[in-house]
């Protein structure tokens, strides 16, 4: 009788990571689940991780975005394009304000933005414009909001705004880039299981690992709502592992044990302390790993030349030492 339990994947593995970029592996995914999970997480990461962005700008001496400023090298359009690239970390709710006030000849960067206690500029080295006349005064007020993804200025501000306020499209997402790759891996005797690698680059507002973990939590919350699971039912899903033989014939568990069991299933039988007679019998039956062995029942093994009741007891003992069992 076939088994229908789907083996659980391994825990998230960090391949490489720094403050902006990270690569992460999820191994032992059931065939086809690599693309299913990878595409879903990629879309959630791009669209559903909140961030902060400038949504409105007031520049003294400029009533619209096509104006020019006396004594400033860049026109207003170019200044706005540079300001849209400034990345903020916001620690308080609601619209935040910041300002730039320059009275000297100098190159203006994001480091010259004066922020309140609830704001932090993450890329202070970003160039904004250059004041070229010592008599010129650059006076800019910024409004910063939080949101998701990309939002056009028409959707952001449906109400009328004050004269002199220039609205800008907001790129809220803190994600600069995200992609994934899927390759096959061996689990037991099967070589069609998936290993998913996700590559993420952020703007520094949060770490790549935080972005991935937040996306997974968002997915779980969405699915939980669809099933209308209560808090008790939701929590009860986590420990649902009964050491049952899965489709590979091996046992599995959640949490840290999941990764360990997958590694055990890959163990070659010639590296385990089988007797020569039993090892030769299993090899002749084309069994190479513990993962392949646990797919067999006692009746299957008794049908192999060289394996009798004593051999069965030996196999059971070694499998039990590794936390495994024969197929029932």
Short description:
This protein has 328 residues and is of the alpha+beta class. The protein is built from 10 helices and 15 strands.
Radius of gyration: 30 Å
- Number of domains in the coordinates? 3
Name the CATH superfamily assignment of the largest domain.
DNA-directed RNA polymerase, insert domain
Q: Quickly give the CATH architecture of the largest domain.
A: Beta Complex
E-strand count: 15
Biggest pleated-sheet summary:
5 strands, antiparallel
Side-by-side strand order of the widest sheet: 7-5-10-3-12
pLDDT averaged residue by residue: 84
CATH fold label of the largest domain: RNA Polymerase Alpha Subunit, Chain A, domain 2
Tally of individual helices: 10
Strand percentage lies at 25-35%
Quaternary state of this entry equals: single chain
Report the uncertain regions: 238-258
Helix content: 25-40%
């Amino acid at each position: 009788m076939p088994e229908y339990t789907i083996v659980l994947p391994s825990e998230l593995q960090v391949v490489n990571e720094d403050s902006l970029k990270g690569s992460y592996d999820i191994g032992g995914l059931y065939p086809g689940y690599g693309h299913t999970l990878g595409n879903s997480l990629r879309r959630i990461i791009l669209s559903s991780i909140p961030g902060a962005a400038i949504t409105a700008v007031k520049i003294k001496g400029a009533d619209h975005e096509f104006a020019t400023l006396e004594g400033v090298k860049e026109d207003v359009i170019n200044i706005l394009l540079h300001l849209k690239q400034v990345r903020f970390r916001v620690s308080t709710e609601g619209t935040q304000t910041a300002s730039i006030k320059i009275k000297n000849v100098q190159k203006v960067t994001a480091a010259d933005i004066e922020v309140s206690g609830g704001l932090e500029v993450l890329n202070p080295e970003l160039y904004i414009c250059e004041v070229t006349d010592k008599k010129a005064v650059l006076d800019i007020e910024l409004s910063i909001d939080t949101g998701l993804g990309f939002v056009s200025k028409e959707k952001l501000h449906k109400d009328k705004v004050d004269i002199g306020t220039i609205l800008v499209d907001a790129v809220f997402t803190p994600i600069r880039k995200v992609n994934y790759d899927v390759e096959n891996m061996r689990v037991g005797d099967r070589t069609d299981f998936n290993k998913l690698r996700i590559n993420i680059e952020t703007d520094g507002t949060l770490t790549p690992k935080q972005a991935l973990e937040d996306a997974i939590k968002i997915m779980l919350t969405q699915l939980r709502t669809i099933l209308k699971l209560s808090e008790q039912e939701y929590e009860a899903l986590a420990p649902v592992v009964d050491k049952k033989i899965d489709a590979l014939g091996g046992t599995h568990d959640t949490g840290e044990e999941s990764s360990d069991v997958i590694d055990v299933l890959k163990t070659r039988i010639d590296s385990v302390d089988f007797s020569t007679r039993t090892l030769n019998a299993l090899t002749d039956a084309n069994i190479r790993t513990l993962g392949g062995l646990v797919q067999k029942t006692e009746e299957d093994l008794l049908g192999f030349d060289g394996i009798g009741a004593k051999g069965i007891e030996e196999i059971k003992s070694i499998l039990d030492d590794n936390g495994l069992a024969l197929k029932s």
